[in-house]
Amino acid sequence: MAASADPRPTQRIVIENCSIATVDAHDTEYASGHVVVAGNRIESVGAGKAPEGLTDVVRRIDGTGHLVTPGLVNTHHHFYQWITRGLATDHNLFDWLVALYPTWARIDERMAGVAAQGSLAMMARGGVTTAMDHHYVYPQGAGDLSGAIIGAARDMGVRFTLARGSMDRSEKDGGLPPDFAVETLDGALAGTEATIDAHHDASFDAMTRIAVAPCSPFSVSTELLRQGAELARRRGVRLHTHGSETVEEEQFCKELFGMGPTDYFESTGWLGDDVWMAHCVHMNDSDIAAFARTGTGVAHCPSSNARLAAGIARVPDMLAAGVPVGLGVDGTASNESGELHTELRNALLINRLGAHREKALNARQALRLGTYGGAQVLGRAEEIGSLEAGKLADLVLWKLDTLAHASIADPVTALVFGAAAPVTLSLVNGRTVVEDNHLTTVDEDAIARATRDEARRLAQIAAGA
Predict the structure, then answer these.
(1) Is 455:112 a contact under the CB 8 Å cutoff?
(2) Which residue has the higher pLDDT, 101 or 293?
(3) How many angstroms separate the CA atoms of 377 and 364, rounded?
(4) pTM of this structure
């Protein structure tokens, strides 16, 4: 028997009298406009008041003094690191990894779930509506780590991609992770496919998607990269890894594989429009051309790159070449704030220290990186990343009339150059996740207590190992 149509009317939310940055293909903006949300979709966006005669309006918001943008999209993170913040603060990447891997290898299901809650809460409260987590540490006997992370995102109400990571190259094989922190090749592939089976949703308005994500060239075997790419394409999911983060990584690849990271990735099937890589700091012209030719995306993580002294990624050159680029918080053990608005500002400021100086990026380019660029990188640009009729209702209403921003005439400049703006409203799939700068779906204070307790428990376990 065919299912009957849902008789319930579509409920509408109307936001009016606000500035709007749509981040559409034309960067359309309205000094005073409206957004109408119907169910989980954007119904209309434009200048002036909302259309007359709308029915089933359950909420009408006066957005005076506010800017509406698409929700922010985070393209690289490691949630579990929330409970190891503030450690190894003066290390470069390789020394930092060596210092922290023994602790990370002691995580369990409860720790992973609580750390995910903390990471997600900080991002969501700051305007992130789509998050991702690259989780690659799967100690034996630790429980269902992927399920715990996905459950935290579901409870928070944010759209989510779990990049199911893996490592099979340990210290005995010339890698960095300790031997007890890695999986076998077959175990990693089986665990990844099982996660796809259990959790991946390919639908237009999916709240959870899975990507295949071996960790990095110095922690996985060539065969795991190659077979991981084959698995992802057989199952129709995206691919993610770290790439070209440091000069040490480039040296490692040349010594071990006889080629630089980009050529190595291409030799294993890891360039393509279904791939995005984190960092990509040390890219020459040939590397950038290869990414542009293949449509390979980049998750730019300016705060983490600075924290670990990795360098300044050539983002202006990537954008000029046509490389898709989004922003990433990266793990909070290398970006303790854990908040993506910081990356809008730091992407702009840090890139202006590079060769292009003041012409590197402007405020609107930075906002595009954090919204539409992120949607491109995650393969969801048809669904999210800009405010357009028919797209999913993931949006943020930023309050810009307080002391922190009121004297900055241009609202996009205020958002990007200014202090972190309060979030009056954040909608994900048409559902309220943040109201008046507070999460509505979870208890922030309870999460703070739980993450503190799990951080202490992990430190005690690691100290006694």
Answers:
(1) no
(2) 293
(3) 18
(4) 0.96
